[in-house]
Amino acid sequence: MKAEQLRKSILQLAIQGKLVPQDPADEPASVLLERIRAEKQRLIKEGKIKKDKGDSVIFKGDDNCYYEKTGKNEPVSIDEEASIFDLPDNWILCRLSAIADIFTGNSINEAEKQKKYMGLDSGYNYIGTKDVGFDHSINYTNGVKIPYNQGNFRIAHINTPLLCIEGGSAGRKIGVLTEDVCFGNKLCAFEPIGINPKYLYYYLQNPIFTQIFKEKTTGIIGGVSVNSLKNLLFAMPPLAEQERIVSEIEKFEPLIVEYDKLEQQATKLDDEIYDKLKKSILQYAIQGKLVPQDSNDEPAAVLLERIRAGKKAQLGKKYVESYIYKSDDNCYYEKVGSGTKNITDEIPFDIPDPWEWARVDTLFHHNTGKALNSANTKGNYREYITTSNLYWNYFKLDSLKKMLFTDEEIDKCSLKKGDLLVCEGGDIGRAAIWNYDIPMCIQNHIHRLRAYSAVETKFYYCVLYLYKQLGIIGGKGIGIRLL
Description:
Oligomer: single chain
């Protein structure tokens, strides 16, 4: 079980009454709720909080089902909604609005922020969504302050849970205030009334609440309204048990943090081991040590002859005879046209006897794509890929751009299924095989390698990957074998 899963399990046990033992001497939660209702009425009368229109009482009937009575209306069954809870006898269910004053803050646009509220010497710190971390931390030092006498801003007080309820962080960013603050309109304050603030804080993170929150999410950017939040169910234990639950959770918290660190270290170690193992396997593969040699295999020299014949047929008069061979002096030489030179220093490792060394351009027709040119006005618009679309062994094609290509440029720059593409810029040598049947061109920072004759292109992709890892990539040669 991962650290976050362990934490969620603990929180779920907590709000099901299964984390700490029940104590029959505890004052029942129903008595606590009556006190909270009386406190709410006092706060409403003093104008400190607003009255809830949907104030209700939830109870279990003689049939052991949950019912809710709102005002003078007849009780209605909420057993289906409450079925996710299986609570101890001295716990009760109520709506979140019954135990907390729930409200959002005030938005500030950037111009207003810079002009009025940046750099003030005193005032309430202003907390935006970005100031609440996924690790439940809150940054109070962003430089934005709201004057104490600014009456238009809502204030969330110390010990209040603050939850993001709109956007990509909705339901995921939460923290408990350590001071009074003003805050943004995508954050929601849950000011507790008569209950343990930390219990409420942990309640808003438990898997049951998180699931209900997701189900209530609406809108394009994703969010939950304050009215929806007020209407969500809250499982309330006796106050003494709330305190025991918080104490127990906080015993686990540092252990979970340490467990998470160990988990991250183990993951990092696993990744390092995997990378080393992958590199070792590839290194054995391209050195001819991964699988046994088979004397019945056609020698790589015969394959090279076929490839050179195919290359000569395609290039015609432009073809230049070139090959690499091992001489009697046990050194490697390269013959290009009428010239010959010793390239022993370029050979990175030994290969088996049936293998041969060859330059990349012996095996593949090689060219780059078209350079961007704002003055170009000829041709037709075609989509193209550049280094930002090309990654190791895959492509990102969700943000393609277009430029003009003439018929001649399309022939040079277009792709065919099976082409091996290699980055020239950025992460030099990064490569992937084009396996799509869609029209596409390339920009000049990508090299297109198209085999002159049938070869196992994936093998050469693996060679490029290993050469990159070993720091020897650069077209010095690759070992080949007929597979």
